[in-house]
Design goal:
The complex is a heterodimer of chains A (372) and B (123).
Chain A lengths: L1 H5 L6 H57 L8 H8 L15 H23 L5 H34 L2 H30 L7 H10 L4 E5 L2 E8 L2 E8 L9 H11 L6 E9 L9 E5 L8 H12 L4 E8 L1 H5 L4 H21 L5 E6 L9
Parallel strand pairs in A: 3-7, 4-6, 4-7
Antiparallel strand pairs in A: 1-2, 2-3, 5-6
Chain B lengths: L2 H31 L4 H24 L11 E8 L5 E5 L9 E4 L6 E10 L4
Antiparallel strand pairs in B: 1-2, 1-4, 3-4
The chains are: A alpha/beta (372), B alpha+beta (123).
């Protein structure tokens, strides 16, 4: 009868009183513990996400160790070296005085790339050029996962320490996107270690299709170029040198080609993977104008600057995909879009240029798993 | 990655809460109108409480379920430089697009990897 006494349903005074006590207790909890309950709910979500991120970061480290192990000498303790390198950071240049900021950024990005390459050459000296490039990508993904985990954990602990509802709310609201990015990096690790082409490799794939069978030469850091004849137009096709996971310096390559011809370039076509909006279809091909390149800035700037200097029209062809599709194994829809883009480019070259014109076609992206 | 699994746990938990709520209503109804079923009413209330506890346990089980899905169905498409021969096979370590892989089975020309892509896994 205990429950009946606790929750009385009669019309007598004691029952009414008991019900009033319950009502009072209920409202008291809502009134005084409202924020604590909210904090508890948000904190639980953040803890759950942090646990998952920790798991992903650890797995990422394991994957990096596994791939480095194949090329490492036996007398090196790779575990401690990789663990400490996961905290490797890059300080962005000061932008309070924006003059020359992109040159400074390029210098720092070059430093970063050189340091990672040096680390890999020391820890995995048996790796060839292709394998070293793939290990570099794996390390980048593992560093990103480790960084995401540490940032989320920082805000979780900060929220706990300060008991701030605002910190938890902000963290909770951003978690779906953060988790999406982390999961994309995690899946990318597997793809990088097996050397499969990724969605971002669409640009290099299109360029490869165009330059297939033609002689190639290196014209900038990790960038190859072929001179292709399309309906009596001289077309310079450029892409990152595959099949290792590199993006190269396509901006530098375009700049050199334009300067080499004294600016007498009829058009520059750029092909890249672009993030799709929700509701758009993966593999959808869209045309536009501008420099289609998603680098931190320096390469895009070089292309825009040289195109503006010589008044060269910039045509962009992009293929829509989300971040996960861009970083993981290339989907069939994206591979099929490459063939479609090849035809579109040939048609556009014929329609928008004259015979004897010089054209540049730049396939932008990570060329992992794509040769030439 | 395992958000679907997590959602499943949440749904089961909500379902159990609804069942527990229905049981509480039933128990109240029995208490109010059918006095001979007091014992059954108590059992129903107790079952409802147990269901509530289970629903919480299931909700928190979502925390423990962290396992990545790694199955991929990656296809390598082989083509010939001279003829229209096409062949598909599962991806193998070391494959890359435009890698020359020997002679064509149809015309003895050079065959190469035309494409490598991911196809959806049939469940």
């Amino acid at each position: 009868m205990m429950i009946n006494q606790l929750f009385p349903s009669g019309n007598d005074i004691s029952s009414i009183l008991m019900n009033l006590i319950w009502l009072f207790l209920f409202f008291s909890i809502l009134l005084f513990f409202n924020q604590k309950i909210q904090i508890w709910v948000y904190q639980r979500n953040a803890e759950k996400a942090t646990m998952k991120l920790q798991f992903l970061a650890e797995k990422g480290k394991e994957e990096a160790l596994k791939s480095i192990k194949n090329f490492a000498p036996e007398n090196i303790d790779i575990k401690s070296q990789v663990t400490s390198f996961l905290d490797f950071f890059t300080i962005e240049p000061v932008d309070k005085d924006p003059f020359g900021v992109l040159n400074r950024l390029e210098h720092i990005l070059d430093n970063r790339r050189d340091r990672i390459k040096l680390f890999i050459s020391q820890i995995a000296p048996k790796a060839g050029k292709v394998e070293a490039a793939n290990v570099e990508d794996i390390m980048e993904a593992a560093i990103a996962l480790n960084f995401i985990f540490k940032i989320v954990r920082h805000y979780l602990l900060l929220g706990k320490k300060t008991k701030s509802l605002m910190i938890f709310i902000q963290l909770d609201m951003q978690l779906p996107l953060i988790m999406k990015i982390a999961e994309a990096y995690f899946k990318a690790l597997k793809t990088f270690s097996s050397g499969k082409p990724i969605g971002d490799g669409l640009g290099p794939l299109v360029a490869s299709r165009l330059m297939f069978g033609y002689p190639k030469q290196v014209i900038a850091e990790d960038i190859v170029c072929s001179e292709v004849n399309i309906e009596n137009r001289k077309v310079y096709v450029i892409k990152a040198e595959g099949p290792g996971g590199v993006v190269g310096k396509p901006g530098e390559a375009v700049k050199r080609l334009v300067e080499l011809h004294g600016g007498k370039i009829a058009r520059i076509f750029m092909i890249d993977a672009a993030s799709k909006l929700e509701g758009e279809t993966t593999g959808e091909v869209v045309e536009g104008v501008g420099a289609a390149i998603g680098d931190p800035g320096p390469e895009k700037y070089k292309i825009e600057e040289v195109a503006t200097k010589y008044k060269i029209p910039l045509d962009a062809i992009i293929c829509k995909m989300d971040i996960e599709e861009a970083l993981t194994t290339m989907k069939k829809e994206i591979a099929e879009a490459a063939d479609l883009i090849v035809n579109k480019i040939k048609k556009a070259i014929i329609e928008r240029t004259k015979e004897g014109d010089i054209v540049i076609v730049a396939g932008i992206g990570n060329t992992i798993g794509i040769g030439q | 990655m395992n958000s679907n699994k997590s959602n499943k746990f949440t749904l089961i938990s909500i379902l159990l809460v609804i069942i527990a709520f229905i049981l509480f209503l039933l128990s109240t109804f029995l208490d109010q109108y059918l006095f001979q079923y007091t014992m059954i009413s108590k059992v129903i209330t107790f079952t409802g409480l147990i269901l509530l506890i289970i629903s919480w346990a299931i909700y928190f089980m979502g925390l423990k379920q962290i396992k990545p899905q790694t199955t991929e169905n990656v296809i390598t498409v082989i083509a010939c430089k001279n003829c229209d021969y096409r062949e598909e096979r599962p991806f193998m370590e070391g494959d890359y697009v435009f890698k020359e892989i020997g002679k064509c089975k149809k015309c003895s020309g050079t065959s190469y990897i035309y494409a490598i892509y991911l196809v959806p896994v049939k469940k």
